[in-house]
Amino acid sequence: MLKLIRMEMKKQKLAWFYRGAVIATILCAGFMFLIAYTEGGGGPAFGSVADIAYTERGGGPAFASFVDALSIAGLLCRAIFIVFASVLLSRFIIEEYKNKTISLLFTYPVERKKLIMAKMLLVLALTFGAMLISTFITCISILALNSHFQFIPGKPEAGVLLHTGIQLLIQTLSAACLSLIPLFFGMRKKSVPTTIVSSIIILVLVSNNSQGLSLSTNITIPLILGVIGLLIAYLSFRNVDKTDVA
After folding, report:
1. Domain count along the chain
2. Residue 59 sits in which domain range?
3. Rounded CA gap, 50 and 234, in Å?
4. Where are the bilayer-spanning segments (predicted)?
5. CB under 8 Å, gap of 24 or more: what pairs does 207-213 form?
6. Is residue 12 within 8 Å of 5, Cβ to Cβ?
7. Which pTM value belongs to this model?
8. Per residue in 99-158, pLDDT tens?
9. Does residue 178 lie within any of the structural domains?
10. Inside any domain, residue 114
């Protein structure tokens, strides 16, 4: 399987993905800083000590806590790369079916299911890696900026940061698995737009905020959703060895 994944990596031109991931990370960090600046008033309150980081409009600090700030950063990064994953799925699988170029790949003396699974695992690895690195860089940027501008009340505690980091890791893994679900819908009609639109629907459902809580807030729920994501992705190609390329 690793050999198939390496072969797929050599076949696909991923420079666009790496560039996009870098740009997305910069935008995430910039957006978080923009939130801190605008919510913090951008004036006297911005850059004062955390305990009095209130806006002139009578508001509160830019973020309620370090957990709040890092969770928002993680959610933003996951949302962006769920869409990135749908583009990868479209390029690696859907477009090859649509253009019939997948037929050449299926002439290899390897089970079709393994070939598709190798593509899917590559998408999973790229998505998870990009989400994880982007989240880490964005969170580090927040902590570094806060040490100077102090837009988050209190001081970062090692225990809190560690617990939040573990939560973000689990949520990132879950989101990467969920990002494979659009393959199921895209394979039904061999449609790139369907794949991308379904990814947007998924990120809206996962990120949907209701009274301050989202589906990704609880640790158990992301784990269950991640398993569901993998199962649905598997359903999309479970019969690929028995079906013709259409």
Report:
1. 1
2. 2-235
3. 48
4. 16-37, 69-94, 121-145, 165-185, 192-207, 219-237
5. 207/75, 207/78, 207/79
6. no
7. 0.83
8. 887 777 777 777 888 888 899 999 999 999 999 999 999 999 999 988 887 788 888 888
9. yes
10. yes
